[in-house]
Amino acid sequence: MEHKQDINIRFSPVIWFPAEVTEAWNQKNKRDKDAAFIAGGTLIQMQREQGTPCSSHLISLENITELYGMSTVDSYLRIGSLTTLAECLQNDELKHRAALFYEAIQNIAAPAVRNRGTVGGNLMYGKGDTIPALLVMNALVSYFDGTKTQLERISDFLERDVGKDGILLTSIWIPENKEQTKSISFYKKIGRREAFSSSILTAAGMADLDEEGNWTEVRLAVGGGDIPPQRLTQSESQVIESVSIKNELRNVYNVIRSEMISVTDAFASAAYRKTVAANIILSHLYEGSKTDDERKGR
Question: Please, what CATH class does the domain formed by 14-60 belong to?
Fold first, then answer.
């Protein structure tokens, strides 16, 4: 009796190694949906493990030298898109000038992933845990669109369909944080198993107060998991308009929960994520608004 056996064949993609940004973009544009850019490869590996088919052509960016490294340009810290997360953690200037971004990277996955994963890949993933931090830092991104290199705010960049537009991210630009009378910043990731899993929620914030304790600028953002990265602009305005955050906790809390776009999945409900986000943000704002005497219990 003849025995037939089904054999699943995993096809290996064709990998290209362009040496310049224009060459990489042309190769991607030539093959359109049949091709994808690849940097560290951690995202594509995860997608394949989840059953997402790999593109038949992979355009490796690893030979494009201009996509690596960090440098100071005017008042910005420029980070090449192929700079690995591990390299960022080894850079003292980044730790000093972009502490919030540094903290976000510390909370990403395991060391093995950070050794391969890149800052560009984390951003292009669209759900990376660094994005809320970059949003509140007013970061800029540069990308090649087939004609020239463009520079725009990260909030505008995130509204693009980067896959459809064939965008090639080249670098991230973090502005110098100007010294204020009093400033606070925070980053918090809520995960199922600390840094080794996808986050349930990520929240970040930066805020400045004047000598009288009034909020002069507030930037708040959330993301993580399947939550779309977003600035909470209505909540920011509500905080600034508050005479005292201590007396406006309920109002700010309600605005955060109302404004935030959330999701429900197998691990947490949309309502739970909104509640956690509001509590994280308010606790940091409340603590940051305290005077020295209040902290000392006087």
Answer: alpha beta
